Amino acid sequence: MNQINQIRQFPYEDAIRDGTARIAAQALGEAKSVSDVSRLYDSTLQFVIQFIDDIAGKEPPPRPVACQKGCAFCCANIHIRATPVEVLRIVQHVAEEFSEKRQKEVLQQVVEGDGHPTSPCPLLIGGACSVYAVRPLTCRGFNSYNATQCELQIRYDVSSAIGGYAHPQKITLAALDGLRLGILEQGLAPDLLELRLALKIAFIVEGAGERWLSGEDLFQAAEAQITDAPETAADNA
Ligand code: SF4
After folding, report:
1. Could you tell me if the CB of 75 is within 6 A of ligand 1?
2. Which structural domain range is residue 135 located in?
3. pTM of the model
4. Which residue's CA is the closest to the ligand 1 atom numbered 8?
5. Is 37 in the pocket of ligand 1 (CB under 6 A)?
6. pLDDT tens track for 22-63
């Protein structure tokens, strides 16, 4: 079982984690379908977005954040991890919002991706996240003050800390931990998955969401092996 991240920087983190865990455990205990799971993701996301907005109003980033449309260095060369809740939300989004052609394109990238650590996320299409509205919390929280640092690390493997605005990352990570705790409390497992492998299972196995909800250890092969905080630790400097 993966350890929940215990390193805290801001007082709100424990409250977000515990509140999310409580809501997630209850929602998953009652959930019967992928739509129910999606509603849990949506309400968590709504809370996260509002919290980030509120904090940013009081403590805005001390420097401009460099992230902008078309910059996708962070979508490669890292193990993107997500809970089954987030994975199932993405699958529902793809089924409901994508044309048949685009669905095939995503499925092909998910299935044919070689899984090498430097290969880009299979959800990256034309240099942009194809599931941006429902992307995993880890992706939503990550940001950088300096895109060149991201490029150096991803393209040229030059290791350097990537500084960014800490609040979005800490808020999303606390919510992520809450989802993980809620999942574990319901006896569902694993709580954290490698995105690419998990998508492969969720797209291909019929009724994957409902089977996972009924307690089947469907995502075992996709369990995340790396349990620490994301490599790109934001700081608030
Ligand atoms: S889910 Fe979207 S934002 Fe996250 S790594 Fe994949 S393409 Fe990038």
Report:
1. yes
2. 12-222
3. 0.90
4. 75
5. no
6. 999 999 999 999 999 999 999 999 999 999 999 999 999 999
